[in-house]
């Protein structure tokens, strides 16, 4: 190994082959943008030189004096430079080519750590590792230093990250637009078994992956009033006279495709005050008032999803949504398109994908731009707008379909409310003409709801103002048409389509599960990394004893990796020889962590009561990972009870060798990348008809975990692909759920009629897991027995029966491994690359 420490200073002299000095510099970026110069071929020597230059002249430290964070930032910026030429070249080609772009509008992006993904995309993993080794540094230490930006709440944000990764890999022009939250999804800790939310200070040590561009700032207006006037051509117009405004500052991040020299852009907006500091007030001694405007403005991008149980919280959420779409539309129209571009042709250059209802205010915003600022006639503007948007609905829960009170909308965005009223008036006239005399249909389809308060239904506005509306799994899309938006799908049957979600194989197989990746590549080649359908070639290997043995060894190695991590990270010492039964997802009643808890307590009760002998039990380690929204009380009570049950079970010698429960805090993408490859059993147990799709179910199946689940979301498609023999189905299907609901669901009757269920719930209620205090479990138990809105008690027995089938299957380890291989082989359909192909063909025409 070269002794770098003898000369660790990176000289700024002319090119040299001495690894202690800066060698051939990266090319002049202005030349790259014109395609005149290409990035140099990466070598270990060049990488060392670039790394030392960043350390010396970027961080201002010598290698011998540098901290691990100095080294991480220098490494990240070195890798970033190797992507820079492709990023600038991609942008130049997009502008010159006049190609149609996808503007992906999403309030969430859960990107995960970016260093490993960037090294993979640029094929620099080995070179970077060797270069750092030359400097006496273990690259694994620097990977661990990266703080994951928690700019999302769960599946929605992770899906957005997968999609922009796939679009870059497929060389599809795309700009991802969102918010640069100063504090992302809270960092979860536990105190006395209860969730405590701690700010997620992901920017505390700097973010080397972003580029601020304050010169491209956008002013965003709020409040005020509107007034009518007559323009120069004698037309009646409206003018918005805002009451206050903020600035949006763009921060750019590169989104590299997989080894294809395409690098797209993620543009996140940060809010700043237009007048941040008042010197006169400051000099008068009122220091807080002097910066009040700055504090008020920066609140907009301060926190992901501020608690909205208060009027102030609701107002801040609407401010966030309008802020980022106003910035994004302005950015594309004014800064991305050619200056002389005719906006009549805007649909030929952009399609804005609305990722759920959060960005839907973009529809009236584009109308405002075209009509009020660009002077278009209303009908022309509306025709353009409807072609420029497509809407993805991610939910079946009525409460997740956003509505905003007319009062709040009028206060914050008075011109947009006027535009929405006119959109609605024109649309309802169309409906009245098509369905003469059907007053109830007209009321049902109105964007404006009259009860319980006058409100704007954003899902309706999205449907009316978009060219296409899609669900995210076959079942979800059918229910979206039949149950959520039936009047609209009847009116526009061709507008509705399905695009089943997918996950990127680069991060969730190649990076997360390198041992499995190597095994698969040795068997079928590496083409699967960009064509996951090639996993089908693995199917014959399920009958190869040698391959099954290797596959089982990979699974065990992944378990060891996870157990070592959890011991170091959380102090959890888990048994090595048990089935790993995993349920990780957002904590919500419809996802039914409560049902999983009932299963654990039932198993525990059977053992300690003597009804079940430990010799007959298949040992299991149960792992949960979930965050509950800060204001979601019953979800937080569920977390408390899971932790309380875990504490009791893990301390009980009677079940020591057969049961353990773990709930590591702060589940995120980084932990998922270790947990998912280790899992044996994937819990996908939502009430049928409530989960839109799920993507965790796909990640688990692709990494060799078998699924126990209901016929819900993408579970339906997973089961169809892997086969009934390789999936543990239980519970009611959606029609049965609706039939039971129509009859009148009575959870108490299930409690009274099922002896095991009654014993399980009674044990929870007794205070056995809460130090003898019955009050601590009372709300959870009362909710199950009297309300149980997502019918956990109705599905309880079917679930336990399915778990018995799981035990039976797991006892034959070789047969289980064969089933797991078939799950991997048959789920290549669930790639986000395939999802993006479906969007291109069915929705975007890109």
UniProtKB/TrEMBL annotation:
Pfam families cross-referenced by the UniProt entry: Phosphorylase
Record SUPFAM superfamilies: UDP-Glycosyltransferase/glycogen phosphorylase
Taxonomy, superkingdom: Bacteria
Molecular-function annotations in GO: glycogen phosphorylase activity; pyridoxal phosphate binding
Residue ranges of the region described as Disordered: 1-23
A Gene Ontology cellular-component term: cytoplasm
Modified residues (N6-(pyridoxal phosphate)lysine): 699
Reactions listed under catalytic activity: [(1->4)-alpha-D-glucosyl](n) + phosphate = [(1->4)-alpha-D-glucosyl](n-1) + alpha-D-glucose 1-phosphate
Record-linked InterPro entries: Glycg_phsphrylas, Glyco_trans_35, Pyridoxal_P_attach_site
One Gene Ontology term from the biological process aspect of the record: glycogen catabolic process
Entry keywords, A to Z: Carbohydrate metabolism, Glycogen metabolism, Glycosyltransferase, Phosphoprotein, Pyridoxal phosphate, Transferase
Enzyme Commission number(s) from the entry: 2.4.1.1
Cofactors (names): pyridoxal 5'-phosphate
Protein task: Allosteric enzyme that catalyzes the rate-limiting step in glycogen catabolism, the phosphorolytic cleavage of glycogen to produce glucose-1-phosphate, and plays a central role in maintaining cellular and organismal glucose homeostasis.
NCBIfam families given in the database record: P_ylase
Stated family: Belongs to the glycogen phosphorylase family.
Protein's name in the database: Alpha-1,4 glucan phosphorylase
Organism of this sequence: Yimella lutea
Phylogenetic lineage: Bacteria, Bacillati, Actinomycetota, Actinomycetes, Micrococcales
């Amino acid at each position: 190994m070269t002794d770098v420490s003898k000369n660790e200073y990176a000289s700024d002299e002319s090119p040299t082959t001495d690894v202690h000095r800066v060698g051939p510099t990266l090319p002049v970026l202005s030349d790259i943008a014109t395609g005149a110069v290409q990035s140099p071929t990466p070598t270990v020597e060049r990488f060392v030189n670039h790394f030392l230059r960043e350390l010396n002249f970027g961080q201002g430290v010598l290698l011998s004096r540098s901290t691990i964070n100095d080294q991480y930032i220098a490494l990240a910026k070195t890798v970033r430079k190797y992507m820079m030429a492709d990023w600038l070249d991609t942008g130049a080609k997009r502008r010159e080519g006049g190609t149609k772009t996808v503007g992906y509008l999403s309030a969430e992006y859960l990107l995960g750590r970016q260093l490993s993904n960037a090294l993979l995309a640029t094929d620099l993993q080995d070179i970077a590792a060797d270069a750092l080794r030359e400097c006496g540094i273990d690259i694994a230490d620097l990977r661990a230093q990266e703080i994951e930006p928690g700019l999302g709440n769960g599946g929605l944000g992770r899906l957005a990250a997968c999609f922009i990764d796939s679009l870059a890999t497929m060389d599809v022009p795309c700009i991802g637009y969102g918010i640069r939250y100063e504090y992302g999804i809270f960092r979860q800790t536990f105190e006395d078994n209860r969730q405590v939310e701690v700010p997620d200070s992901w920017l505390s040590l700097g973010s080397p992956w972003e580029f601020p561009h304050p010169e491209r700032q956008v002013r965003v207006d709020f409040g005020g009033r509107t007034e009518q006037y007559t323009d120069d051509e004698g037309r009646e117009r409206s003018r918005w006279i805002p009451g206050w405004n903020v600035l949006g500052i763009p921060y750019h991040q590169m989104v590299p495709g997989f080894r294809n020299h395409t690098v797209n852009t993620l543009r996140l907006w940060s809010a700043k005050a237009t007048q941040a500091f008042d010197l006169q007030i400051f000099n008068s001694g009122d220091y807080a008032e002097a910066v009040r405007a700055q504090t008020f403005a920066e609140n907009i991008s301060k926190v992901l999803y501020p608690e909205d149980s208060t009027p102030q919280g609701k107002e801040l959420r609407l401010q966030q949504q309008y802020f980022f779409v106003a910035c994004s539309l302005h950015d594309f129209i004014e800064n991305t398109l050619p200056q002389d571009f005719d906006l009549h042709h805007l649909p030929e250059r952009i399609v804005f994908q609305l990722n759920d209802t959060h960005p839907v205010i973009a529809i009236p915003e584009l109308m405002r731009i075209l009509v009020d600022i660009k002077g278009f006639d209303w009908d022309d503007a509306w025709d353009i707008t409807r072609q420029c948007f497509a809407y993805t609905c991610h939910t079946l829960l009525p409460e997740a379909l956003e509505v905003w009170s007319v009062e709040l909308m009028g206060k914050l965005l008075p011109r947009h409310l006027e535009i929405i009223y006119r959109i609605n008036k024109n649309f309802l006239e169309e409906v009245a003409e098509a369905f003469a005399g059907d007053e109830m249909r007209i009321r049902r389809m109105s964007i404006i709801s009259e009860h319980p308060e006058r409100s704007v239904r954003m899902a309706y506005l999205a449907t009316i103002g978009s060219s296409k509306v899609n669900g995210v799994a076959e079942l979800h899309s059918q229910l979206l048409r039949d149950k959520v938006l039936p009047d609209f799908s009847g009116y526009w049957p061709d507008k509705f389509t399905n695009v089943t979600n997918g996950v990127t194989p680069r991060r969730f197989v190649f990076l997360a599960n390198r041992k499995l990746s190597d095994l698969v590549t040795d068997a079928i080649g590496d083409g699967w990394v960009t064509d996951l359908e090639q996993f089908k070639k693995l199917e014959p290997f399920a009958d190869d004893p040698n391959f099954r043995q290797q596959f089982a060894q990979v699974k065990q190695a992944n378990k060891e990796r996870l157990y070592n991590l959890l011991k170091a990270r959380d102090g959890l010492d888990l048994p090595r020889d048990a089935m790993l039964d995993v349920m990780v997802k957002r904590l919500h009643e419809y996802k039914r962590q409560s049902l999983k808890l009932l299963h654990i307590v039932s198993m525990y009760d059977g053992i300690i009561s003597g009804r079940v002998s430990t010799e007959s039990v298949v040992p299991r380690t149960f792992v949960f990972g979930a965050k509950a929204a800060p204001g979601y009380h019953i979800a937080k009570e569920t977390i408390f009870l899971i932790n309380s049950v875990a504490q009791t079970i893990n301390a009980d010698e009677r079940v020591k060798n057969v049961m353990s429960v773990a709930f590591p805090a702060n589940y995120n993408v980084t932990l998922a990348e270790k947990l998912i490859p280790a899992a044996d059993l994937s819990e996908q147990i939502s009430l049928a008809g409530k989960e839109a799709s799920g993507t965790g179910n796909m990640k688990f199946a692709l990494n060799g975990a078998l699924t126990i689940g209901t016929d819900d979301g993408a579970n339906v498609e997973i089961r169809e692909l892997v086969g009934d023999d390789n999936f543990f189905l239980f519970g009611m299907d959606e029609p049965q759920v609706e039939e039971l609901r129509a009859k009148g669901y009575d959870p108490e009757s299930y409690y009274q009629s099922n002896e095991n269920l009654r014993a399980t719930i009674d044990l929870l209620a007794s205070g056995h897991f809460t130090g003898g205090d019955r009050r601590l479990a009372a709300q959870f138990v009362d909710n199950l027995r009297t309300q149980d809105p997502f019918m956990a008690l109705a599905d309880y027995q079917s679930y336990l029966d399915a778990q018995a089938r799981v035990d039976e299957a797991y006892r034959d380890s070789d047969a289980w491994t064969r089933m797991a291989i078939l799950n991997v082989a048959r789920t290549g359909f669930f790639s986000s690359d395939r999802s993006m192909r479906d969007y291109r063909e069915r929705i975007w025409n890109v």
